[in-house]
Amino acid sequence: MTPLRRVRAFAGQLALLAVLGALTAFLVSGPARLANGRTDAGLRGDIGKLEASSRDLTFQTASRIGEVSGGYGDRELESYRRGLPAPLGELIGGAWYIAETPQSSIVPAGVTPGVCPDVVTVRWQTGADRAVTIVAGRAARSGDLPEVIAERDAAAALGVRVGDRVHLTARYGQTDARVAGLFTRADPGDPIWADQALTVGACPDPREGIRDQAVLLTDRAGAVRAGTGLAGLSDRWRYRLAEDRITADRVAALTRAVALARREPPERTSLQSSLDNTLAGFDAQVRAVRALLAVVQAGILATAAGLILLAARLMTDRRRTEFALLRARGGAVRTVAGRTLRETLIAVPAAVAAGWLAGVLVPGRPDEVEPLLVAAVALLAVLAAPVCAALAARRPAFSGHRLDASALRPSARRLTAEAFLVVLAAGAIYLLRRRGLDAGAGVDPYLIGAPVLLALAASVVALRVVPFPLRRAGKLAARARGATAFLGLSAAARAPLHPGPLAVLVVAIATGLFTGAVTSTVDAARDRAAQLAVPADAMVAGYRFTPDIAQRVAALPHVDRAVAALFYPGASVRGDSSATLTQTQAVVLDAGVAGLDLPAALTGARPGGDPVPAVVSPRLARQIGAGGTVEVLGRPYRFTVAEVRDTMPGLGAGARDFLVLPQQAMPVPDFAPILPNRILVDGSGFDIDQVRATADAGQRAQLQALTGTPVEQSQLAAPATVTTRAAYRAGLEQRGVDGVLSFTFTAGMIASAALALTAVVLAVLTGAPSRGRTLSRLRTMGLSPAQGRRLLVFELVPLITVAVLAGGVAGFVLPALIGAALGLSGFTAGVTVGTSLDPWFAGGVLAVAVVAVVAALVVENVANRRLRLGTVLRLGEEQS
């Protein structure tokens, strides 16, 4: 029989092997590409949100008093770019040279300057002439007097018009300039405008209010003349990275390149950028996501590889008689293996290639190891069946044989191998916890191997433990009426003879439970982070509110409670037992009504106590002892340490030094009240805009009481911001890598469930011939079809139960065992919590188990029809 005819004859078995090979090849390429694509998109989104001062690489000359640049630095723009460390040069999307004067006040000619005039910088920048649209006047053409052009909105804010002569005054010089024209931006999204926004800043004396800050554009000659008069003109070379060219696999190289550019900048310049810090932070998150994805992917691929081996064994078992006949006719073992290899080469490689191509069609960036993994999958899918056939041909058999009790006892070699596997898994987990992730290894091989080894070790332990209770249960079932339970439990007790299905099922369930446990753990930690950052339903932040702001906000509709608080970052603390002065974050609030998680010593504090009770952080408590004095808004208050806590609601998980005081017990004088800068709001359905407007009204009232003049909304240096706990919690899931995290969780659970069901189906198919012969004999004794189905249930339910328990325990403890190496705290705003599992995930596992039993019954019924059980005894057939 030719190979093609044999392929047609055994099409079902080869098709199963080919489909599993294609599925595994797709899992190698498709999900990884999609995850990488989402990671890259998250990185680009995070970089795109950065301010220009953080994301751009800016080389700036050292500022010296009276030094004026010649304004010809544009000649070095390209050479500096070529000198950037690789791979920065190829990622630059825009480059500009800037000659800029120091910040100076601007006063129109003939106008008496106020106590806090607006400020501007005069700039000549390459490319600006092509980025502007003149709407009034003309472009700058400086002569003896510098000419400038102003953006239309900036001119209105500064109070200047075309033709005005303005006086500029800097710290070390002054000059006049003429406004030649007004312009609008040709493309408001052009990155050239990123550092030229019209802003509002506070005056040097807060009682003087605020002032506008703007940039005026000029030509080269105007910049030099203005710089000469103002005694300063600095050079800057600004390079913007094109985020659409950046991929997450280059983050580490980019970080090193920026650090090198900082250490070795061009002569007489220094690098102004925090891009390396941003990239380093993102790289830490990417490493954590890659580590988590590697664990899930390793579990899924290990399960898929196990399914391929099960399919190969199924194919071999169904053809055992054929192989025995070949051996009886003088065929060698290699003949049997070569015969099977030729068959698999016809069907399997094309299927693996198709699965890989399907993965290639998924949008995203491929992993570097993708070709190697696909090649490994192809080799496994092609060689699994020939190797199994060769092993089967070494011990040919024409019929099945009964396994007696002695066959259930494992050999010393097998016990040694199983013990070695358990020890190897324990050692891998220990080493991973001891040394953490290998930062230079890409995806740490220990991290890939340890979880799979742990799941396999759990399956081995389960295989050795489960026969004892099953045998006991079988003996009890033998005393009961009916043989269905006894026969089914007896078959289940022989599971150690066929460890493959259970091992694959345990790995699949462990991977799914690990994914669910990580999901629940991260969710719980994020909930805790939201409670710490926003200790009420909403928190309002501002500069200074009136002392009665809590009553104003509490009077709004749907507001149940409002508490004013002062978060004072620069409080000076001196302990009674220490002469050292310490700076800390002080929080002053009315603890009696705040409804926060505070000790009774604060909530029950009453006026008249001296000193007042306080809650302090552990490190501060070690520094100050049992009590001391804290200075808040210029006044000292004595306190005693009532309790030491690691965290304080409202300060977030990153706070290390803090001190919390109950305002209701503090001796605050009426002439120097505590001016709050936070409002904690509780309620349901309140209008956020209304709360913000009320808070800003309080700020304006406080500033007006300070300055004695009316204050407009636009004059507030720090308008009130309202952050709800729900919005903060949602924000924790909207950072750059969170899309990859969600994808990993979803894909891991779906793939694990699907592969677990496939493992159960293959386990049923593997034992279908032997069960078919047993059912044929039992039906002659009166066994009904319903009893036959119950027989399968009694055989499978222990297997599935053991797999769920072993895999569930392995998957649940994995986050606790290797969580520190995964760096999960990077996704939870620094909050760490114990491992948790949502009941819905546990219910999902039980649902998958039920579906697996139902699927097994369906597959068994189909297999029994193909085997024609009614003819087995009559004809002695052993169907394939």
From TrEMBL:
<dbReference type="GO" id="GO:0005886">
    <property type="term" value="C:plasma membrane"/>
</dbReference>
<dbReference type="InterPro" id="IPR003838">
    <property type="entry name" value="ABC3_permease_C"/>
</dbReference>
<feature type="transmembrane region" description="Helical">
    <location>
        <begin position="743"/>
        <end position="770"/>
    </location>
</feature>
<feature type="transmembrane region" description="Helical">
    <location>
        <begin position="415"/>
        <end position="433"/>
    </location>
</feature>
<feature type="transmembrane region" description="Helical">
    <location>
        <begin position="502"/>
        <end position="522"/>
    </location>
</feature>
<dbReference type="GO" id="GO:0022857">
    <property type="term" value="F:transmembrane transporter activity"/>
</dbReference>
<feature type="transmembrane region" description="Helical">
    <location>
        <begin position="791"/>
        <end position="820"/>
    </location>
</feature>
<protein>
    <submittedName>
        <fullName>Putative ABC transport system permease protein</fullName>
    </submittedName>
</protein>
<feature type="transmembrane region" description="Helical">
    <location>
        <begin position="344"/>
        <end position="362"/>
    </location>
</feature>
<feature type="transmembrane region" description="Helical">
    <location>
        <begin position="840"/>
        <end position="859"/>
    </location>
</feature>
<feature type="domain" description="ABC3 transporter permease C-terminal">
    <location>
        <begin position="749"/>
        <end position="858"/>
    </location>
</feature>
<dbReference type="InterPro" id="IPR050250">
    <property type="entry name" value="Macrolide_Exporter_MacB"/>
</dbReference>
<keyword id="KW-1003">Cell membrane</keyword>
<dbReference type="Pfam" id="PF02687">
    <property type="entry name" value="FtsX"/>
</dbReference>
<keyword id="KW-0812">Transmembrane</keyword>
<feature type="transmembrane region" description="Helical">
    <location>
        <begin position="374"/>
        <end position="394"/>
    </location>
</feature>
<feature type="transmembrane region" description="Helical">
    <location>
        <begin position="291"/>
        <end position="312"/>
    </location>
</feature>
<comment type="similarity">
    <text>Belongs to the ABC-4 integral membrane protein family.</text>
</comment>
<feature type="transmembrane region" description="Helical">
    <location>
        <begin position="445"/>
        <end position="466"/>
    </location>
</feature>
<keyword id="KW-1133">Transmembrane helix</keyword>
<keyword id="KW-0472">Membrane</keyword>
